[in-house]
Amino acid sequence: MTTNGGHEPVFCTVVPPHVLDRIAQNQDPALSSAARRTLERDAWERTHRRMTTVVGATAVAAPPGAASDQPQRTIYDAEHGTTLPGTKVRAEGSEPGQDATVNRAYAGLGATFELYLKAYGRHSIDGEGLPLDASVHYSKDYNNAFWNGEQMVFGDGDGEIFLDFTLPIDVIGHELTHGVTQYTANLTYFGQSGALNESVSDVFGSLIKQYTLGQSATEADWLIGAGLLAPRVTGTALRSMKAPGTAYDDDVLGKDPQPATMADYVRTGRDNGGVHINSGIPNHAFYLVATALGGNAWERAGQIWYDVLTGGDLDNDVDFAGFAKATAAAAKARYQQGAELQAVTKAWETVGVRTT
């Protein structure tokens, strides 16, 4: 069973290590140097997060009193340094400034808060009104964005491979959803449970984008990180939930390695057992459920996934089969023997995971 009382935070980045590794080996220093610095910074942050968890950090707490239906956002400017959070540049309720990155981060935090509140009745990341903090302009040419267990951090990208990480709203929603998982199912960040951790963030990141744009499941592009890749890159996004393995095919980045079904499951010791790679399988399952049901994906399909994530019945190290069974049980509990259960069962069977 889940041990949610621990709320064990992990360091989660939106750009997978295998992508940065590939760029870091490029012969062009204009490309490789930024990737290497990003990998070094990520390694430091990952170690720092692990040590903070072991030693015990002061927990970020929601403000006293009843949870508000309004977010409490604060945006900081790291000014291309690495000391967090940086200089406070925008508080909740203040008017937009001249810095578009600050404004996008503020709006993205608000959009994430709104989706969870309006669709699922959840008050912020922890369900109790947790303040939402974010730092922008982190480090120099930093090619990533991450949730560190306490706040969001965005790099500006190197301009060669990646652009500003506040540009895709689903990237913001993806990383904040790692916080939701931290406070709910607390999925272990390794192997299939780690891939599910990543997939859940992709699912709700995509739903936040669809909700913000007012798109139905059939209208959505189901891309994660569309608009993040620089013009020189041959690709459309970091990942595709509709067609895993097709998001990019580039001389520098290589080819998108995500599988869509268990037939192509990747066994690897890298990236915590391939958490960013094999997440393509549960991602595709959700896409199939959402498009089979039609309408707004954050409603029935999203509700089923949210019920599983927050239900308290998942093992921390749940595998794909266990999660699939949980979604089928959640669909049956909420919608009985209707189209929802049929869509869930068929989707998981299509990607090669049994629900019985």
Summarize the structure.
With 356 residues, this protein is of the alpha+beta class. The chain is built from ten helices and ten strands. Residues 1-6 and 52-59 have low confidence and may be disordered.
Describe the structure.
The protein is an alpha+beta fold and 356 residues long. It is built from 10 helices and 10 strands. The chain has a 6-stranded mixed sheet, with helices on one face. The protein has a two-stranded antiparallel ribbon with strand order 7-8. Helix 8 crosses helix 9 (320-335). It is globular. The longest helix is centred in the N-terminal third of the chain and has 27 residues, at 29-55. Strand 5 (145-147) and strand 6 (152-154) form a beta hairpin.
Which H/E pattern describes the elements?
Answer: EHHEEHEEEHHEEEEHHHHH
- The fraction of residues in strands falls at 5-15%
Number of strands: 10
Helical fraction? 40-55%
**Biggest sheet character:** 6 strands, mixed
Report mean pLDDT, rounded to a whole number: 93
What's the Cα radius of gyration? Answer: 19 Å
Name the structural class: alpha+beta
The strand order across the widest sheet is 1-5-6-4-2-3
